[in-house]
């Protein structure tokens, strides 16, 4: 019985690739040293899958930064600003596209579907000269083959690539990206021909855009592309892999009738309706790659339930045509449970990380072929049962409180303009008030120190950040969050129902990884979480000091969430815990409280039909947290990397007093929604410079951005701020950038005053 893995994490079990990349970027190690780390990682992953008995092992799912950027390199679609002159694309051009360099900004980064991974958005137009400029897919296939592992090379499919692209600067916004299909297919043909010559027998095209609501012309592009590739693909087994949701019925029919394709991969974890489509008609003689092992969570698979599903599929497609697979790439889960010696034993028995999921896939495939590992299955059944009955999972009081929320809308008593007036009387801020988003560079932990020394060192750090902001003349201050490890983990560690890993890292973008907490049970807040530090910080300054909280939806979307109750129920529980904290901060004299909902947008389901329900409970959860505060308490929220325009009404419905927005890489897209006449009466701070890049923007550049904003937003509601927290930036970068930001705000205040 055959087994398959869609893709595997690249960072390494102990984030080896992260450290190698950062060392290379800092000029501390050579390209050869970086390549060696990468080669070792790839080799160990292939060997691990091969040893586990996996038949279809992926190659080319490794990346130095991002798989979409790898495809851009393969197609030679380098934007002209990087001055690439042709030839094989090397690290210098590749990393300039990803991260920018001293003279030009990076390409835009955005969410990969509804995950917390980010990809680099291709910038295309009618004049792009495509050429085969990165032989990575072929090189990695050969590299695995030399190690004795015959792999399935994975390419991002041509249609998905184009659908995820955007028109480059200066290209009409309405430019039909799919019109470039005829220009990129010849390069795909070259790659395929080389793979075939190197001995590949299977090839996997990832086409996850097939799960979206597609228009008929987009769907036709798939038929066109694979019909066009058909002759080049002859002699190869072709798998088209989809993931993250169900396929709409029309899409399922289009996909399964593609002639040159012999295997279809479906996510059967998030795509429960796909099962019915398969049952109502799967083409005979084709392979079904059944994604029954969840690639996006850390829970152990319910093996007996999966086996039942697989057995019913076997009846439809035939024993020799069913392949057991993961629901998507394992990129979105943690790497290996073996590196968690401190994790609670009972909770650990409920989990499976990427390495364990490989074993689960293989165990299911063996069981289907009549070689069931009884010990493996019974240990799994035992763990499933213990999770269902564990008293650690259920808290009656929390269940009751969350159930009681159903009756109310949880809105503040007065409307936003009346609240802003009351707040201004109290805060007395200038026009175009300046602030930052929250975090400053974190000091390194200096080994084990006593609680007393720890508190002293954190207070010193806060005092340094407060002084710096006062010197810069920033209006609303932050304490810099030196006591926090991560904006979600910090709260999760103080809430019940959460568990934490030592090495459960997941790639977010480039070398940046996050370590999502695991929500295994009902959530509550035993005691105040941030009041001590916020009041300490407020006591150091006369200026308003923002209380800093992470919102319930972001805590939910950035955690591995329990899969035994609906997500919204867990979210309401978290909202109640944050509500307690907001009210305690207010009692302690904190007048500005920021509740970050950086990840509100990324929880948005992929299909439009499911948007309204999600947005309704997500926005409601946010309002629950602050519906009880006084009019004079100013509630801020912050959001990152978003395509706001389609959810602007939900954002207004959150009813925050001030919203700061990450938009500097999305190039003013955000402002277009206000140009189109959306009435927005609350305070708003679209980021005036990109903190993800080490570049320091000039005062003129920032003033220019603020002017663009003033063209569409009222003077009295505009705030001036960077677009995200500053914890990834050194003080030598932060200080001049903030100096220029404040100078730009003051310059414009003077201009506005004299214009009056």
Q: What's the gist of this structure?
A:
This protein is an alpha/beta fold. It is 42% helix and 12% strand.
In round numbers, the mean pLDDT is 93
Distance between the termini: 78 Å
Strand order of the largest sheet: 1-12-11-10-9-8-6-2
Biggest sheet record: 8 strands, parallel
What Rg do the Cα atoms give? Answer: 26 Å
The percent range for helix content is 40-55%
- How many distinct beta strands? 22
Structural class: alpha/beta
User: What overall form do the CA principal axes indicate?
Assistant: globular
Protein name: 5-methyltetrahydropteroyltriglutamate--homocysteine S-methyltransferase
Function: Catalyzes the transfer of a methyl group from 5-methyltetrahydrofolate to homocysteine resulting in methionine formation.
Organism: Sesamum radiatum
EC number: 2.1.1.14
Task: Walk me through what this model shows.
- By secondary structure, the protein is an alpha/beta fold.
- It contains 26 helices and 22 strands.
- It has an eight-stranded parallel β-sheet. A five-stranded parallel β-sheet has the order 17-19-20-21-22.
- α23 (648-654) links the parallel β20 (634-639) and β21 (658-661).
- The longest helix has 25 residues, at 731-755.
- The radius of gyration is 26 Å and the shape is globular.
- 50% of the residues are buried.
- The mean pLDDT is 93.
């Amino acid at each position: 019985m055959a087994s398959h893995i869609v893709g595997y994490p690249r960072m390494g079990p102990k984030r080896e690739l992260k450290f190698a990349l950062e060392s290379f970027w800092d000029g501390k190690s050579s390209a050869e040293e970086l390549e060696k780390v990468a080669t070792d990682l790839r080799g160990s992953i292939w060997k691990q899958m091969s040893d586990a008995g996996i038949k279809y092992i992926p190659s080319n799912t490794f990346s130095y930064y991002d798989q979409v950027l790898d495809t851009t390199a393969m197609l030679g679609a380098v934007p002209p600003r990087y001055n690439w002159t042709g030839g094989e694309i090397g690290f210098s051009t590749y990393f300039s596209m990803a991260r920018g360099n001293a003279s030009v900004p990076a390409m835009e980064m955005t969410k990969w579907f509804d995950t917390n991974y980010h990809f680099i958005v291709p910038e295309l137009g009618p004049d792009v000269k495509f050429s085969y400029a990165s032989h990575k897919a072929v090189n990695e296939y050969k590299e695995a083959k030399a190690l004795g592992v015959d792999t399935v090379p994975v390419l991002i499919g041509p249609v998905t690539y184009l659908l995820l692209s955007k028109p480059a600067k200066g290209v009409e916004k309405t430019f039909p990206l799919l019109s470039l299909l005829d220009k990129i297919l010849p390069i795909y043909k070259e790659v395929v021909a080389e793979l075939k010559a190197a001995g590949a027998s299977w090839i996997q095209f990832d086409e996850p855009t097939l799960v979206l609501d597609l228009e008929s012309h987009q769907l036709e592009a798939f038929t066109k592309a694979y019909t066009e590739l058909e002759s080049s693909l002859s002699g190869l087994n072709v798998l088209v892999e989809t993931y993250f949701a169900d396929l709409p019925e029309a899409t399922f029919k289009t996909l399964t009738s593609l002639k040159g394709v012999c295997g279809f991969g479906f996510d059967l974890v998030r795509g429960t309706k796909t099962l019915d489509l398969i049952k109502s008609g799967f083409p005979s003689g084709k392979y079904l790659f059944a994604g029954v092992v969840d690639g996006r969570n850390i829970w152990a698979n319910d093996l007996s339930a999966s086996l039942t599903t697989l057995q019913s599929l076997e009846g439809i497609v035939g024993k020799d045509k069913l392949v057991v697979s993961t629901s998507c790439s394992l990129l979105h889960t943690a790497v290996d449970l073996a590196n968690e010696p401190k994790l609670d034993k009972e909770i650990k028995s409920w989990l499976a990380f990427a390495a364990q999921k490989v074993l689960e896939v293989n165990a299911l495939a063996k069981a289907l072929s009549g070689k069931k590992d009884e010990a493996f299955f019974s240990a799994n059944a035992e763990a499933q049962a213990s999770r269902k009955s564990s008293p650690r999972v259920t808290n009656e009081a929390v269940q009751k409180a969350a159930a009681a929320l159903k009756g109310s809308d949880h809105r503040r008593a007065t409307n936003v303009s009346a609240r802003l007036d009351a707040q201004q009387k109290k805060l007395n801020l200038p026009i175009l008030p300046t602030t930052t988003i929250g975090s400053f560079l974190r000091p390194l932990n200096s080994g084990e120190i006593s609680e007393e020394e720890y508190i002293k060192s954190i207070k010193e750090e806060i005092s340094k950040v407060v002084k710096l902001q006062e010197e810069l003349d920033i209006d609303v201050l932050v304490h810099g969050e030196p006591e926090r490890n991560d904006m979600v983990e910090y709260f999760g560690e103080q809430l019940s129902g959460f568990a934490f890993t030592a090495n459960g890292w997941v790639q977010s973008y480039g070398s940046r990884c996050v370590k999502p907490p695991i929500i295994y049970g009902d959530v509550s807040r035993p005691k105040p979480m941030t009041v001590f530090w916020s009041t300490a910080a407020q006591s150091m300054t006369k200026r308003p000091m923002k209380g800093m909280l992470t919102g319930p939806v972001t805590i939910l979307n950035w955690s591995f969430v329990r899969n035994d109750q609906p997500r919204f129920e867990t979210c309401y529980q978290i909202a109640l815990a944050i509500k307690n904290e907001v009210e305690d901060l207010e009692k302690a004299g904190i007048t500005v409280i920021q509740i970050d909902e950086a990840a509100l947008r990324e929880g948005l389901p992929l299909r439009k039909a499911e948007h309204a329900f999600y947005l309704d409970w997500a926005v409601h959860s946010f309002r629950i947290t602050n519906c009880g505060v006084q009019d004079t308490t100013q509630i801020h929220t912050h959001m990152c990397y978003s395509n706001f325009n389609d959810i602007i009404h939900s954002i207004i419905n959150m009813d925050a007093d001030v919203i700061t927005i990450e938009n500097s890489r999305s190039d003013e897209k955000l402002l277009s929604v206000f140009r189109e006449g959306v009435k927005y009466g609350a305070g708003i701070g679209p980021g005036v410079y990109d903190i993800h890049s080490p570049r320091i923007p000039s005062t003129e550049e920032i003033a220019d951005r603020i002017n663009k904003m003033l063209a569409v937003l009222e003077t009295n509601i505009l705030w001036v701020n960077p677009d995200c927290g500053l914890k990834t930036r050194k003080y030598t970068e932060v200080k001049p950038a903030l100096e220029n930001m404040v100078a730009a705000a003051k310059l414009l205040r003077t201009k506005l005053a004299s214009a009056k």
